[in-house]
Amino acid sequence: VEVAQHPNIKLYTYAELEHLDGFIGNFKATIRLKAKSVDEKICTGCGLCTTKCPQKRISSEFNAGLGLRTAIYVPFPQAVPNKPVIDKKHCNYYKRGKCKICEKTCPTGAICFDKEDEFVTEDIGAVVVATGFNVLGTEFFPEYGYGRYKDVITGLQFERLASASGPTSGEIRRPSDGTMPKKIVFIACAGSRDPAKGIHYCSKICCMYTAKHAMLCREKYPDTDVYVFYIDVRTPGKNFDEFYRRAVEEYGVHYIKGMVGKVVPENGKLKVQASDLLDNRQLHIDAD
Asked: Which one of 1, 39, 131, 141 has the largest count of C-beta atoms within 10 Å of its C-beta?
C-alpha cells in the first residue's frame, strides 16, 4: 500500500518482465502488462461482479487448493490495487463466447473483454530478483500419502487453514470431513538432508515454521496433542532457539528426534509409523 501511494514509485501489477537489455546502472526493461479485462481507472472495487459470476468452483491458488473462487476475482485479500481480474482459462465468455454476466452487473461499465496485453519500456538502474520457491509435488513423498489422503497437507495449506482470511475463517479443520483434529503430526525436515531424495542440505526454514504452527495449534486448541518429528533442530537466528524452546516448555509440543517412515489411513485416522531415535523405539500414532 505504501509503495502504491508513494509519489516517486511507479507500480506495475499483474505484470511480467518480458525482456532485459543493458548493464548495471543502464538497463532497458520491457514489461508485459497482462490484460486484466477490467479497467482499473473506472472500477470501484465494489465486488458485485464476483458475487454474480456463475463459475464459482475454481480451485483457489491463494488458499493452496483448499478453497474455491470465481472466474472474476481479486487474487488475494488486501491486494493492491484491490480490484478484480478475469481468469481467461475458466471464464465462460472466453471459453464459449457467451455469458458476460459480470459486464451486465458492473455499475461503472469497467469490464472490457477485448483488452489486450500491453508492453511498456522503462530505463532501469538496478534489478532485484526475488526467486520465490516451489512446494515439492506429491510424487516426491509417496510414503506420506500426500495427494492421496485429504488430511495430509503441506505447511502452506495449514497456514491457510489457520488464517482468518482462509477457507475455514481461521478454524483448523480436517479437509476430509471438516471436524476439529485432536492429534496433529508435523513432519519436519521433509526431504531435507536426505540423500535418497537428492537434497543434502538443510532448508534452514522449517524448524521455525513448524514451531510457529505447533504453537498456533496449542494456543487455539489447548486440548490438541501436537507432535513434531525432526532430524535435528537447527534454529540459527537471534532468539530463534528461545522460540523453539517456548514450543516445548510453554506449549507442551512433543518433539521427537526421528523420521516418519510411512503414513497409512486406518479407521478414519492416519496411522503414522515413525522411529524415536533417543528412546530407541518404534512409534505408531493415530493422527487426525
From this structure: 141
Q: Which cell is 49 given?
A: 461482479
Q: Looking at this protein, which amino acid is placed at residue 159? A: E
* Whether the Cβ atoms of residue 52 and residue 25 lie closer than 8 Å to each other: no
From residue 37, alpha-carbon distances to 97, 139, 212, 281 in Å are 15, 36, 39, 60
Write out the three cell numbers for 170: 481461521
Helix, strand, coil percentages for the chain (3-state, nearest 5): 20, 25, 55
**Helix/strand/coil for 58:** strand
- How big is the CA angle at 64 (ends 115 and 39), to the nearest 5 degrees? 20
SS (H, E, C) 168-204: CCCCCCCCCCCCCCCEEEEECCCCCCEHHHCECCCCC
> Does residue 194 have a pLDDT over 90?
no
In tens, the pLDDT along 171-183 reads: 999 999 999 999 9
Round to whole Å and give the CA distance between 160 and 244. Answer: 22
> Helices 206-220 and 155-162 meet at what angle, rounded to 10?
30
How far apart CA 171 and CA 161 sit, in angstroms, is 6
DSSP assignment of 83-102: --EE-TTT-HHHHHS---HH
On the question of a cis peptide bond just before residue 84, with omega within 30 degrees of 0, the verdict is no
Q: Do 83 and 30 form a contact (C-beta atoms < 8 A)?
A: no
pLDDT of residue 127 exceeding 90, the answer is yes
Q: Contact at 8 Å (CB) between 185 and 160?
A: no
- Nearest partner of 152 among 115, 190, 125, 116, judged by Cα: 190
Tell me the three cell numbers of residue 167: 477457507
Measured CA to CA, the distance from residue 189 to residue 206 in angstroms comes to 7
